[in-house]
Amino acid sequence: NLDLVHPLPMATAAVLLKACILFTICQISWASSLQEQDSYIIHMDVSKMPTVFSGHEDWYSTFLASDSFKAADSSDATMVTTKPVYVYTNAINGFSAILSPSQLELLKNLPGFVSAYRDMEVTRDTTHTFEFLNLSPVSGIWPASKFGEDVIIGMVDTGVWPESKSYADEGMPEVPKRWKGQCQSGIGFSSSMCNRKLIGARYFNKGLKAKNPNLTISMNSPRDVEGHGTHTSSTAAGSYVEGASYFGYAAGTARGMAPRARLAIYKALWEEGSYASDVIAAIDQAISDGVDVVSISMGYDQVPLHQDPVAIAAFSAMEKGIFVSSSAGNNGPTLSTLHNGTPWVLTVGASSIDRKFGATITLGNGVTLFGASMYPRLDSSLTRVPLLYSEATKACNSSEILNNVGHKVVLCEFSKDTTTQISTLASSSVAGSLFIFNSSSDLSDVILDFPGAILRLEDSKAIFRYIAKSRNPVVTIRFGGTVTGTKPAPSIAVYTSRGPSPSTPMILKPDLVAPGSLVLASWTMNSSTVTVGQKSLFTDFNIISGTSMACPHASGVAALLKSVHPDWSPAAIRSAMMTTASILDNTNNPIQDEGQPAGGLAMGAGQIDPNRAMDPGLVYDAGRDDYVKLICSLNYTKRQIQTITRSPSHIDDCADIDIDLNYPSFIAFFTGKHPPTVKTFKRVVTNVGDGGATYRAEIKPMKGFVVTASPETLVFQKKNDKRSFVLTMAKTSPMEDDVVGGSLSWVESQGNHVVRSPIVATKIDAKPL
Questions:
Q1: Which candidate in 491, 548, 563, 743 is catalytic?
Q2: Does 332 have pLDDT greater than 80?
Q3: Number of domains present in the structure of the chain
Q4: Cα(80)–Cα(458) distance, rounded to whole angstroms?
Q5: Annotated catalytic, 221?
Q6: Burial, 631: exposed, middle or buried (Cβ in 10 Å; 0-12, 13-18, 19+)?
Q7: Is 553 tagged catalytic?
Q8: Structural domain of residue 473, as residue ranges?
Q9: Over the stretch 92-112, which tens digit does the pLDDT of each residue have?
Q10: Which of 54, 326, 454, 458 is buried deepest, with most CB atoms within 10 A?
Q11: Both 232 and 329 in a single domain?
Q12: Do residues 547 and 499 share a domain?
């Protein structure tokens, strides 16, 4: 307030107050020299905004436009006005801007400043999968949810190819009235391209442009020119497309996990680069538009929660009941490599499915084998071509040797440098190749641009026997084969990032796994999928792998659950997905990870099971206050905490900290010179069954530990009843392995519900960033 003897009109007072603010800026000293500028994301406390300002943008712009602020980075008379790149009001409170170090320091002294960090680049992380996940049009979660009808999924990615049949809106009702989004026009994209399926499309690249002022954006619109965003969105909620395939592979009718859900596209990832400020702007807009689910197949590595744009924006989304699904990353199989280990989002790892692509290989003696391949030229099959194996050629890495082979199929020993082998073969005169590989890994996507296939070592023995007995061995190779029902499946993808989470290791991550390897989904028709020889090939469906492909499977399932249970919180939906996940493959044995039973740091709770998730029996729920207590336990400063929570009122609550979040999994660390011998966890479960129920605890033993649950029986009188219990892990002998796994299952006494949670004990030294 202005303390004046003679009161001034309000408008005059406002002008004077703004002048005072600018004068205050002038009083702060700084070096008036040219300095290297950078893009920053600034978090502000909006409760400190003086009432004279019309809004946040007016407030921010006022001090950015002051001569003294401009002079902080200028040594001549020409001073350029700094303007916000973005103003954020939903995902965070604050803005992004290009600032010099002196300007940043000046900003830090202003009332209302909370925190700032540099804008960061993004790390990015197909339709048989619905059958593999047991989704049926006549029973289970699909009909119960009306196939996800009217649930809105917001995809933050590389945009969309609107002409794809996956976005057809035939038979869909009008767009929900609650939808506030829009279809933004741009290069090669008009607002008329949206419909009742694709209900919104926007693009965000101000942050990218601010970092690169002279950059020309090739496709400045929501249109996808890379394929990634089209692939993920059609996986989550694509419409039915008959006759879909990748050059004949995986032929059938494609559809997404929630084929009747609506899609809203937020393009924040670009060919030219991708930055956090644009991602935050996309999530900020998605919250405002009214999405129900946000799917993010990207992340940031090795950053604490208060500097993680996805974590910060997702916190605001969670507060508004929006479910956020994210990818774990593709840096496996090393431990502690995942990103998006945020407690309030679903972190999704990748698994394989029961489908193989390849070639039928028939030897001259009639023996038929199947080799992994995705060579797209199905018209280039090889018929009774001479087969060669020799010491000179088996390495398949010498152009000089291979050029003397002639029109033959060469038997090669698979090496780690497969790219060099295939390029050498492709540039030679050989007709084709067969690779010998001593692994059960699916390598179909390795052989794409050369007529070859990969054989497992045990299958190749038949070839060696044939060559040894034949004077003139020949082979016939027919490409384009697709085999389903293969076993065992699923298995954990070797590339999927593992826990513990660097930012919050006390929360077991990933949460679960979903199909991510060799997934067929829609693609952009301007982007070549493969080059054979000198010819680029195009197709409207592509098969690719990654946790980016796993995440939208989970996002689609979340949309189905949101439709069946609109009153469930994001935490309840996540809990239902986790506690009903499967730990067994289709041979009824434990899911494998590199030849060993998969553990919690690789697969979390297990493979997603949509139908069981619809009726979990019990859920572990959590809300904002629970997450704030966890954040307070991380030894963050008040400003770092406020960066995440946005509201300073919660900072005083840090007297009540709790590292033990009500989470549907458990991880304990037994590290240090004097490691603990006992760990306890407190949990509360809510009965979401139709009536009363009784559950008893079943513990899977853990080597070197005694694990107990108290009480051992939970009795619920009615729906929505809550019961608490304590899980205790007592170490009885030194840990021989770095990681030991087990589980707690609450088994319904007179019913079919089994509520399972993974337990991990580890001596890995992991501390929060």
A1: 548
A2: yes
A3: 4
A4: 70
A5: no
A6: buried
A7: no
A8: 356-477
A9: 999 999 998 888 998 998 889
A10: 326
A11: yes
A12: yes
